[in-house]
Design brief:
The protein contains 3 helices and 6 strands, in the order ααββββββα. The chain has 205 residues and is an alpha+beta fold.
Amino acid sequence: MAKDTEEKSEKTDEEYLDLEEAEEDQEERNQEEETGKEVARIEELEGELEQKEKTIQELKDRVRHLKADFDNYKKRQSTKKDEQVNKEKGELIKDLVPLYDNLDRAFKSFEKNGDKDSFVEGVEKIYAQFAEFLERREIEPIKAEGEKFDPNKHEALMKVESDDHEHNEITEEFERGYTYKDKVLKPSKVKVNIKPSDSEGNGDN
């Protein structure tokens, strides 16, 4: 009977040890499983980070390319603008040179022949050519004498007091002004009439 009890006790101990080993094995498997999940998650995050870094690099490259394209565009536009300005200057000089040549010939002819009538006639033709040249380029003279003074178009060099003219009326033009495409290129330099007040005119004060 005692022997049977000892055998049962030994079996119970063995079963207990087996249970402990099974629990330890299960715990190790659980830990390995958790570790595996963590490793997988880390690898997943590393992959996402790598992809994001790749995307950032691609965006940086795209920004650099766009900046380079924009810089090239600005250079092309600047070159086109310079070319257009030079073209307009060339056309202006091309139109002015014949007028200068005509004036030069008129003076040389007058020095040689002394014919005042021919000289005056030639200068009048050149004057007409100049007027046509200005009109073709939308350069127009500013009306001054007899007009109301406009500080946007006129520059008053002198002021006079006269009853023969209206207040702020331009009585004389010293230097003609011009507009270019309706914008003031240079103002007219003028003399302006300023009427005294009634009290000043009567000398009451």
